[in-house]
Design a protein that fits this description.
Helix content: 25-40%
Structural class: alpha+beta
Shape: globular
Number of strands: 6
Strand order of the largest sheet: 2-1-6-5-4-3
Strand content: 25-35%
Organism: Bradyrhizobium cytisi
CATH architecture: Roll
Domain SnoaL-like: 15-107
InterPro entries: NTF2-like_dom_sf, SnoaL-like
Protein name: Nuclear transport factor 2 family protein
Pfam family, one: SnoaL_2
């Protein structure tokens, strides 16, 4: 379990995460993640990255998100709000298609994201 982080630090991470995605600079996004980070999303199987819906490690994240960015040339996130706990931040945002999403991001002692989960409204 990671140490307790200041709420302001985690809120800033959430804002930085949105800003990084909006630059479409994948390497900038990946600097926010630990090398062993795990990401879960219902979109992962649809993109051909395994039926479990989970990718593991920065190389797998790079491959998954690289493919996604290629398919979403207009990708843009509009921050709605951030919610914090002692070791995580939930980023509530709207994407370029008007879909609202909550992204759960758990951090380690160094403040790097070790676990992420994209949470979408059911279709």
């Amino acid at each position: 379990m990671s140490q307790h982080h200041q709420p302001s630090t985690l809120a800033a991470l959430g804002r930085t995460w949105v800003e990084a995605w909006n630059t479409r600079d994948l390497e900038r996004v990946l600097t926010l993640y630990d090398d062993a980070a795990v990401m879960t999303s219902d979109r992962i199987p649809a993109m051909g990255f395994g039926a479990s819906g989970t990718v593991r490690g920065k190389d797998a994240l790079r491959a998954y998100w690289g493919k996604a960015l290629g398919l979403l040339p207009d990708l843009h996130f509009s921050l709605i709000d951030v919610f914090v706990s002692p070791d995580s931040v939930v980023v509530f945002y709207e994407n370029e298609r008007g879909k609202r999403i909550c992204e759960y991001l758990r951090v380690n002692d160094a403040g790097l994201i070790v676990q992420g989960s994209a949470n979408h409204l059911p279709d």
